[in-house]
Specification:
Distance between the termini: 63 Å
CATH topology of the largest domain: Rossmann fold
Largest sheet: 5 strands, parallel
Strand content: 5-15%
Keywords: ATP-binding, DNA replication, Nucleotide-binding
Number of strands: 7
CATH class of the largest domain: Alpha Beta
Radius of gyration: 23 Å
Protein name: Replication factor C small subunit
Bound molecules: adenosine-5'-diphosphate, magnesium ion
Oligomer: single chain
Structural class: alpha/beta
Subunit structure: Heteromultimer composed of small subunits (RfcS) and large subunits (RfcL).
Number of helices: 16
Strand order of the largest sheet: 2-3-4-1-5
Family: Belongs to the activator 1 small subunits family. RfcS subfamily.
Helix content: 55-70%
Function: Part of the RFC clamp loader complex which loads the PCNA sliding clamp onto DNA.
CATH architecture of the largest domain: 3-Layer(aba) Sandwich
């Protein structure tokens, strides 16, 4: 047994299988094509990558750097997190010192600024001035969840790329590929469960596969739902159906099982409801009403209201509908 196996440590698959080139980034054909043409011309503009987690924003940025700079890419690529808790001044100081150090043989370097939407608009304005100051030597690639949270003066200086949640086929192909490489036995219902739990987030799918593979020889539905803190879709559906049928007590007890016994976060339950409602066997009109309630509940939870109380109130309101 090797040292690694004995200690139970293993390389993290999201790093091991992170695409190294743009052409290995899946599910974003149009984006990849545009990015590739920047790289081929060796002429980058500032860029803004907007989209949810685990869709390839960081991967695309590092792939660009690898293609432009080859093996030395890390010398010319600085990754910073905008929400560095030490503040925007620390971020700007690091940008400045990176931009100023002399560099051999390249026209410009890349600064990848993650979570740019975590910055206040004042901080973004300061950042915009810094971008301007160093735009001869540095290209910025910023990533954010929502481009609407980025001030116009920055957006207008960037080429904007929208990363959508990855399609089920793309996620399925990737996890089947990794399972193959790792010699993992992955069942069809295991694939479906991983794809469902991931909801378009490739990081979640791969981490789920790796975690589930540690706990047993076969990765099946059971293993996946146990490990990913995802409720089975049929449990969520059952809970909602009970509420619709007016059996609030049953609905609440299912909610309780999910939160207390399975340890699923209220926010994740909301997220699942939101994603699966159209697959439930309820009339469209009712689905729309449920979605409306889900949205309201989600908003209240984001605003800091107690998750369980809000979810219970939502189920209660469904029970009262006719
Ligand atoms: N489009 C994609 N194609 C292939 N793998 C991907 C893709 N998006 C994400 N991944 C996988 O998920 C991991 C996390 O992706 P990352 O680019 O860091 O996501 P984010 O959009 O949050 O920056 C990567 O290491 C890679 O293994
Ligand atoms: Mg990232």
């Amino acid at each position: 047994m090797s040292e690694v196996e004995r200690s139970g440590r293993e390389e993290v698959w999201i790093e091991k299988y992170r695409p190294q080139t743009l052409s290995d980034v899946v599910g974003h054909e149009t984006i990849v094509e545009r990015l590739q043409s920047y790289v081929d011309r060796n002429d980058l503009s500032h860029m803004l990558f907007a989209g949810p987690a685990g869709t390839g924003k960081t991967t695309s940025a590092t792939a660009i750097a690898r293609e432009l700079y080859g093996d030395d890419w890390q010398e010319h690529f600085l990754e910073l997190n905008a929400s560095d808790e030490r503040g925007i001044d620390v971020v700007r100081d690091r940008i400045k010192s990176f931009a100023r150090t002399s560099f051999g043989g390249v026209d410009y370097r890349i600064i990848f600024l993650d979570e740019a939407d975590a910055l206040t608009s004042d901080a973004q304005s300061a950042l915009r001035r810094t971008m301007e100051q160093f735009s001869n030597n540095v290209r910025f690639i910023m990533s954010c969840n929502y481009s609407s949270q980025i001030i116009d003066p920055i957006q207008s200086r960037c080429a904007v790329f929208r990363f959508s949640p990855l399609g089920d086929e793309a996620v399925e192909a990737e996890i089947r590929h990794i399972a193959d490489e790792e010699g993992i036995e992955l069942t069809d219902d295991g694939v479906d469960a991983l794809v469902y739990a991931a909801g378009g987030d490739m990081r979640k799918a791969i981490n789920g596969l790796q975690a589930a593979s540690v706990s047993g020889d076969v990765v099946d539905e059971e293993a996946v739902f146990a490990i990913t803190s995802t409720a089975r879709p049929e449990v969520i559906q059952g809970m909602v159906q009970d509420a619709i049928d007016g059996d609030f007590t049953a609905a609440r007890s299912q909610l309780d099982d999910l939160i207390t016994d399975e340890g699923i976060a209220g926010g994740d339950i909301i997220d699942q409801l939101h994603r699966s409602i159209w697959e439930f066997d309820v009339p469209d009109e009712q689905a729309v009403r449920i979605l409306d309630r889900v949205g309201e509940t989600d908003y209240r939870i984001t605003e800091g209201a107690n998750e369980r109380i809000q979810l219970e109130a939502m189920l209660a309101s469904l029970s009262l509908d006719d």
